């Protein structure tokens, strides 16, 4: 019987649906569709399937994280502005006990002071910021190496 391809859940938070047109000087010209294609290709090259979710709603993101407990082996998340506000997303990530990589397109440490604090980082095994959309590729790669160690 063929075994199911292990799945990585890749979450993009609020306003990332506007990528490509949203502050391109900060976030670049690539669109969310480009990010999603990159994630699918990177995951598949390493023997994983990418499940993609973009939502502008905190509760939708939390529901997806909770569901990942039963249907994914790792999570890549760009929580966008929820990075700096959401104890609830951080709690959900801790609750599911899956490896999490946090990604930011921009270098949040070189911007406004409020972007330097992340509620999510303590729940992540790695944080990638400032590498643009390549950050998602690095995140998938890192999760794959962690998971292949098991
Ligand atoms: C972001 C950085 C956040 O501070 C911001 O609110 C975003 C995007 C990034 O990818 O650089 O929406 O997560």
TrEMBL record:
It holds the Pfam family DHquinase_II. InterPro entries: DHquinase_II, DHquinase_II_CS, DHquinase_II_sf. Signal peptide: none annotated. The record marks 22 as: Transition state stabilizer. Keywords: Amino-acid biosynthesis, Aromatic amino acid biosynthesis, Lyase. CDD domains: DHQase_II. GO terms for molecular function: 3-dehydroquinate dehydratase activity. It comes from the Bacteria. Gene3D superfamilies: Dehydroquinase, class II (3.40.50.9100). Coiled coil: none annotated. Substrate binds at residues 78, 84, 91, 105-106, 115. Pathway: Metabolic intermediate biosynthesis; chorismate biosynthesis; chorismate from D-erythrose 4-phosphate and phosphoenolpyruvate: step 3/7. The keyword Amino-acid biosynthesis applies. SUPFAM superfamilies: Type II 3-dehydroquinate dehydratase. Its EC number is 4.2.1.10. The active site is at residues 27, 104. It catalyses: 3-dehydroquinate = 3-dehydroshikimate + H2O. Belongs to the type-II 3-dehydroquinase family. Catalyzes a trans-dehydration via an enolate intermediate. Homododecamer. This is 3-dehydroquinate dehydratase.
